[in-house]
Structures are given as structure tokens and as C-alpha cells.
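Morning!

This is the sequence you dropped in the shared folder:
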Amino acid sequence: MGHPGNRHALSLNAARVAVILADIDHFGRINDLLRHRAADQVLREVATLLVSMTDRNVSVTRWNGDQFLLILPDVSVAAAHDVADRIVRTARNLNLPDLNGVPVSVGLAFAAETEDLDALIDLAVQRLHRAQEGGGNRWA
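The structure's back. C-alpha cells below.
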């Protein structure tokens, strides 16, 4: 439980909140291959994909360079797993000039597993790293 004054404490229907952290695998290589402007287009395409394939209640934010943070406010475990899986599969099939798909790794965490927002993000980061260590282009 968060402290009463902790503005990062989770509340309301926290048990049904999930966070997805999506990272474009090997983005540095994509940037080198396509040059900066085209690599920016890849970021825009992935962002558009994430917004288009999620519910309008899902918040999609560019998080850190080539990472995107999605907050799913009211979702079952099975539905969150489905979103993570669809992100990886759909990005893998994105058809862009000079790129045959965009490999994306995803870390998925649930608010019910943590005590506050910081711990929730940390858990998503840990799972993202696990997906990347498994070779990328997958979710954990």
C-alpha cells in the first residue's frame, strides 16, 4: 500500500491495470541503416500501430528514445497477454521501405503484482530485459 501522501500510489481499480513497455529491437542499427529521417519514420509508424491496435482508453506515450509505454487501465490478464502478443506480431509484419518488419520486445507487468507506480514500471523494465535477453522480437 502506498503512503497517503504518495502521489505515485495506485488506486481505484488497480488490480486491473497493466503496463506494457515496448522497445524497438536494434534501433541503433535501424538508424544507421536508414539514416535519421527514415528512422524517425519507423518510430512514427510504430507509434501509430500501437495507438491503432489498442482501445481508446489505453494511454500510449513515447517513453525513452525508441521505447513506448502503454497503460491499460481496465484489463484482464488474458487480454493484456493478447495485447502484448499482438504488438510483437503486428510490428514484425510492418512493411516499411527498406525494412521487412520491425522487431519489438515487450515487457508486461500488472499493478496487482506491485505496490506503486514506480515498482510497476520497474517490473515492466525487468520483463522487457528478459524478452531482449531471450533474443528480442518477443514479450515477457
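Headline: The first helix runs from residue 27 to 52.

More detail when I'm at my desk.
O.
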